[in-house]
Amino acid sequence: MAEHAHREITQRELRNDSGRIMRHVESGESFVITRNGTPVGKLIPLRRRTFVPRSEVLAAFAPAPVLDDERFRADIDSSVEQDPFSREW
């Protein structure tokens, strides 16, 4: 993922214009906060969950092999050691 440029703002700007700055963060912008000209922190947007259309999900998994669910279950059942303490399997 490409790193976005961070705009520098002073601690005073953050304090005085926090509402405006937070709107910018919500829209995806990042900031480096400075104190006396020295960077002291970053303000970055959190990644939000986004809706992925069904067609994109299907396209992403299209190259995956088809799973035979009955064979898969049989393979799992044959490879798992049975618990000697369980009443039934």
UniProtKB/TrEMBL annotation:
<dbReference type="InterPro" id="IPR006442">
    <property type="entry name" value="Antitoxin_Phd/YefM"/>
</dbReference>
<dbReference type="InterPro" id="IPR036165">
    <property type="entry name" value="YefM-like_sf"/>
</dbReference>
<comment type="similarity">
    <text>Belongs to the phD/YefM antitoxin family.</text>
</comment>
<dbReference type="Pfam" id="PF02604">
    <property type="entry name" value="PhdYeFM_antitox"/>
</dbReference>
<protein>
    <recommendedName>
        <fullName>Antitoxin</fullName>
    </recommendedName>
</protein>
<comment type="function">
    <text>Antitoxin component of a type II toxin-antitoxin (TA) system.</text>
</comment>
